[in-house]
Amino acid sequence: MPTRIDKLTKAQEAQFDAHADKWIEIGLRTGKADREKFEASVRDCYGFAGVPFPDVVVWVPSPMVLSLAAPSAALAIELIEAERRGALKPGTARAAVDGAVGDAVYAAVGGAVYAAVGGAVGGAVYGAVSGAVDDIIRRSWMRRFGGQLWSGGWYYGGAWTSFFREVCKLEIPGDTWDRARAYEGTIESACWWWPHRRFVMVCERPVAIHRELANPDVVRGWGSHRLHCEDGPAVVWPDGWGVWSWHGVRVPQHVIEQPELITAQQVLAEQNAEVRRVMIDRMTPERFLGELDAEPVQQDDYGKLWRVELADDEPLVMVELDNSTVEPDGSTKTYFLRVNPECRTALEAVSWTFDQKPSDYVLVAQS
């Protein structure tokens, strides 16, 4: 068994994808948490951190409940005791458990190996899980451990440490791998958790996670997936708290579930440019322009060009195609296409959609 690794074998590299997929599955697990496994694992984490385990594990239904209840409980305890003597400060357990593991592994492998495994395994899992799920909501609160959603963190995630232990058979003196298994156990069994010297608060897994493949050429890792659901929350916990997302953009619930309630004035009042674009898409550009009583800025044989100035964003420029499509029921459908804001005529806009110059564009009837 090696005690230092400076180069991966071809056989080890060949296991990158399978190992990453294993931890992606862990990171995206839904349903009931494995409470028994979590409580055993977190007890070990406290032991390795040198902090007495409080024997009080409080299970909550969602990260939102945890983010409100955990600090409130901690504050109440500290106020009662008048000062924060011996409190488990943010990062203490992680530094003692996963930080110690990361330091030991980093010291036992070469820089090239560190980067290779980090990118092919840790990065693949972190990008597929955290990049798609955790990043969109993690800024809502602090001082918590990501549980399953931190499965692919470089230098400390379970995918990264277990690859060296299980695939590379790396041997590290002392209790490093015992610490790693303890932390991995929390990842494998539950979602976010908050440690304190008097209690541990932990939330259940999501009951559903809806993603979409964002890039067909990247099946795992950064940029591969994003949260998306057309008729409900993209990720939701047992108490109904969740995140509504349209192609990776977090939006208010009604934008997904009741787009008919969106108004043009709400769109114009929205400060976030990405959310504003989703709102226009959901309410349809035709209704958006109609509610504004917008007038086309130019019209020719190729269609009508519409332009609406938007705050803190490029202008909304759309071409309305005059050659409306006839539907099977005999009705017609008018298409609005968002185009380059530099387009000044409908001909320019239609040509741009075909990546052609206006002088080279030939109008062809579209079926």
What's the short story on this structure?
The protein is α+β, with helices and mostly antiparallel strands and 367 residues long.
What's the structural blueprint in terms of helices and strands?
Blueprint: H1 10-13, H2 16-27, H3 35-49, E1 57-60, H4 63-81, H5 92-108, H6 111-137, H7 158-167, H8 176-189, E2 193-195, E3 200-203, E4 208-209, E5 211-213, E6 225-227, E7 235-236, E8 242-246, E9 249-251, H9 253-257, H10 264-269, H11 273-283, H12 285-291, E10 298-300, E11 303-308, E12 316-321, E13 325-326, E14 332-333, E15 336-338, H13 346-353
Parallel strand pairs: 1-3
Antiparallel strand pairs: 2-3, 4-7, 5-6, 7-8, 8-9, 10-11, 11-12, 12-15, 13-14
Helix pairs in contact: 2-6, 3-5, 3-8, 5-8, 6-7, 7-8, 11-12
Helix percentage: 40-55%
Q: How far apart lie the N and C ends?
A: 65 Å
Rg on CA atoms, Å: 26 Å
The number of helical segments is 13
Instruction: Return the structural class.
Output: alpha+beta
| Beta fraction | 5-15%
Task: Provide a descriptive summary of the structure in words.
42% of the residues lie in helices and 14% in strands. The chain folds into two domains: 10-206, no CATH class; 261-360, no CATH class. The protein has 13 helices and 15 strands. The chain has helices at 10-13, 16-27, 35-49, 63-81, 92-108, 111-137, 158-167, 176-189, 253-257, 264-269, 273-283, 285-291, 346-353; strands at 57-60, 193-195, 200-203, 208-209, 211-213, 225-227, 235-236, 242-246, 249-251, 298-300, 303-308, 316-321, 325-326, 332-333, 336-338. Helix 3 (35-49) runs antiparallel to helix 8, helix 6 runs antiparallel to helix 7 (158-167) and helix 11 crosses helix 12 (285-291). The protein starts with 9 loop residues before the first helix and ends in a 14-residue tail after the last helix. Strand 7 (235-236) and strand 8 (242-246) form a beta hairpin. The strands form five sheets. It has a four-stranded antiparallel beta sheet. The protein has 367 residues and is α+β, with helices and mostly antiparallel strands.
